[in-house]
Amino acid sequence: MRGSAQSQASNVRVFFRLWTTQTNDTDYDVNGAYLSNPDPAGKPGSPLMGAGNTTIPFFATNNFSSQTDYTSGPNIQTLTIPDHQDQLWAYFGCFLNLYDANNVINGAQVQTYLNGTHHCIVAQIAYDDAPVPQGVSPLSWDQLAQRNLQVTRSDNPGPAATHRIPQTFDTRPGRSVQPPTGPNSIYPDELMIEWGNVPAGSVASLYWPQVNASDVLALARSFYGVSPLGMSDANTIRIPITRGVSYVPIPAGAGDNFAGLITIELPTGVRSGQVFDVTVKRLGTRIGKPTPPPPPPLQTAAALFHPEGKTMELQTAKGEVPQPQTPPTVVERSLQWRYVVGTFQIRIPVTTGDLILPSELTTLAIMKWRLEQMSPSNRWHPVLVRYIKYISDRVDGLGGDSSAVPPSLTYVPPLPLPHPRPEREQEHCGKVCEVLFDCHGEFTGFVLDDCCERRVFESRSKSVGELALKACRDGLTLCVWVDGKDSKKINKLAIKP
C-alpha cells in the first residue's frame, strides 16, 4: 500500500481462487468465476465456488466449510503506513490443500473438480473502498494477480505419440453476433493463438464436445472470408501451424462453459534442448458511444430597450429578427473496439523420454482416478476420455505400459531397472577423418582413425560436433573415452597435442 504516513485501509481482504484447468477467461465477473458471500456493506466478503464449478477458493486457516480467513484470520487486515514512511508491505496467503480427502466442497473431494495438469490461480484484493469493476482483467487491473503457464514436455526423437502435446482448457461461450454485412455487425469473440517458434509443419486441434465444428468453420468463413481451419471430426477443429497467428471464432452458447482440449503435434525433427512457447488469448468486443461534438456557436444578438427600461424586442446585430432553428438530425452510432479478455501460455521443452516417463505415469494414474469419479453426463467427461487416451499413447511411446497404471492419486511409478555395470572404460585416440551429418544437415557423429582401425562414434551434441570439426580441420589428435570395448557411447573427450 502506498500513501502518506498514518494512512489507513481497514478490512483489506485477499481472496485466492484456483481455476479447475487452464483458461483465458479470468476477467472479473461477480456472477461467474468470482462469486462471493457479501460483507455487511454488500461488497465481496469471502470467496465462493465459481459458477459452473469453474473456480475453487482456498484459504490460510482451514478448508472451505470451517475457514476463518475473513473473520479473524490472516487474510483480513487493517493496514496503517508507519510514521516517516510512504508505503507498507502486507502479506496474505493460502494453502493449496489439493490432496486432503477431507477437503470437501459441495459434497465432493477437491480433486474431483480438477480437469487438467495446470490450474490458473488468481489473487484478488477485495477492499470495499476500492471495489474491482465488473469486466476488468488481471492483465489491466492491479487488484487482480494471475499465474497461468502450463509446461508439457515433448520427446526427442521418439514416436509421433510422444510429440503430441495435449492440454485441457475452459472457454466461456461467445456472444451472439450479427452478420458482417449488417449495420450493427459485431465481431465474434475469438481465440487468438500466437505460435511463436513452433516449427512449421506442426498441426494443432481444438476438441470442443459441446460445439459443432461445422458451426465454427461457418463462423470463420462468414467473418474472415478465407480461413485455414478444418475439421478432424464433428467436434474437433484442425489448425495448420505456419508460424504467426491463428484465429478461431468462439460460437455463442447458453449455460455452461465449453470444456476443451487443445493439442499440438510437433514434427519428428525437434531436438532436445529446444523450447517452444504458445500464447492463447481471448479477444472480445466492447461497444460504446463516441464523445458528442461541441454545440454550434450561437448567433450574435442585441436587445433593444425602451427608455423607461422595458425590453421591446430581440434583434440580431444586423437588425433581423432571429428565426427558430430546426434542430439537426442526430444519427445514433456506436464505436467498437477489440480487447484482450485473458491469456494463458503453453511451454513445450524438448527432452528425452527417460526424463518424461515418470511424470507421465503419475499424470495418467491421477487422470484415470478423476474420470472414475466423474458422471458421464459431466461436460468434462468426453474431454478426459480423449485426454487419457493421448497420455496413454505417450506413456506407451516412451517405453512404459499404460494398461498397468491404476487409477490413483498416490501412485508411485516403479523405479527403472538398474543398467548392467559397464565394462572398464576404454580410451581411443586418433585423427578425425570424417564428420557425419544426416539429410537435414544435423550433426550425427564422427569417424576416428587410430592407425589400427576406424571407429564410428555417434552424437547429436552441438558442442561435440564443433569439437570434431575443429579436430578434423586442424589435424588435431582427439581422444575418446567410452564404456566397453565396442561401445559408441561417449563418456568424455580430450584434444592432445
Task: Give the gist of this structure.
This protein has helices at residues 213-224, 353-373, 381-397, 462-474, and strands spanning 8-19, 22-23, 36-38, 44-47, 55-58, 76-80, 104-105, 108-109, 121-126, 144-147, 149-151, 164-171, 190-194, 203-207, 230-233, 236-240, 245-249, 258-265, 275-288, 301-305, 311-316, 335-349, 425-437, 443-449, 454-458, 477-483, 490-496. It is mainly β and 497 residues long.
Considering the chains and any ligands shown, give keywords for the structure:
mainly beta, 497 residues, Immunoglobulin-like, five-stranded antiparallel beta sheet, 27 strands, six-stranded mixed beta sheet
Give an account of the 3D structure:
α2 runs antiparallel to α3 (381-397). By secondary structure, this protein is mainly beta. The strands form 7 sheets. Strands 2-12-18-14-16-15 form a 6-stranded mixed sheet, with helices on both faces. Strands 1, 5, 6, 9 and 10 form a 5-stranded antiparallel sheet that branches. The two termini are 65 Å apart. The chain has helices at residues 213-224, 353-373, 381-397, 462-474, and strands at residues 8-19, 22-23, 36-38, 44-47, 55-58, 76-80, 104-105, 108-109, 121-126, 144-147, 149-151, 164-171, 190-194, 203-207, 230-233, 236-240, 245-249, 258-265, 275-288, 301-305, 311-316, 335-349, 425-437, 443-449, 454-458, 477-483, 490-496. It has 3 domains: 8-147, no CATH class; 150-287 and 335-351, Immunoglobulin-like; 425-496, OB fold (Dihydrolipoamide Acetyltransferase, E2P). It contains 4 helices and 27 strands.
